[in-house]
């Protein structure tokens, strides 16, 4: 590239003595420079979105796990009265996932409303990209399911007498 530019400068100097060539660049360099700032914003937005998703998942896990853990005494009473572990586990999961479904519906609705404001920042996506919404909702549902299942399973393994004596 440097040799070509030197040859062009020589030809220009031969044709016009006072002319100078400055800011010589290939089209690839010009295009690359023109998209540098939007690319940086996209990368930063992606990083912040990843952090936000991680924090949201941790928050969902913490809240759902805490809510199920608080029901240890109730689970102990149910098991002392003859409920099987599988029944109690199904009950806790059903109730937890009903709340998660409500949260997902509200979250998807809020996100759909919010995309109208971010429409100018979306490159190559429609404002209501169904696959993005579906994957995000599925990921949060999976995290919430694990958050309900693990403490509920742990609570069903506790001896009913211990659960009743803990308070």
CA gyration radius, whole angstroms: 30 Å
Distance N to C terminus: 79 Å
Strand content: under 5%
Count of helical stretches: 7
Helical/strand content category: mainly alpha
- Give a quick account of the main beta sheet: strands, pairing sense, barrel closure: none
Instruction: Please tally the β strands and state the result.
Output: 0
Ranges where pLDDT stays below 50 over 5 or more residues in a row are none
In N-to-C order, the SSE pattern is HHHHHHH
Helical fraction equals: over 70%
The rough form would be described as rod-shaped
How many structural domains does the protein architecture include?
A: 2
Q: Taking all residues together, what is the mean pLDDT?
A: 82
Summarize the topology.
Layout: H1 2-15, H2 27-34, H3 36-69, H4 72-80, H5 85-118, H6 130-156, H7 160-165
Description:
This protein is an all-alpha fold and 167 residues long. It has 2 domains: 1-34, no CATH class; 35-165, no CATH class. It is 79% helix and 0% strand. The chain has 7 helices and no strands. The protein has helices at 2-15, 27-34, 36-69, 72-80, 85-118, 130-156, 160-165. Helix 3 (36-69) packs parallel to helix 6 (130-156) and helix 5 (85-118) runs antiparallel to helix 6 (130-156). The relative contact order is 0.13. The model has no long low-confidence stretch (mean pLDDT 82).
Characteristic key phrases:
167 residues; mainly alpha; 0% strand
Provide a quick synopsis of the model.
The protein is built from seven helices and no strands.
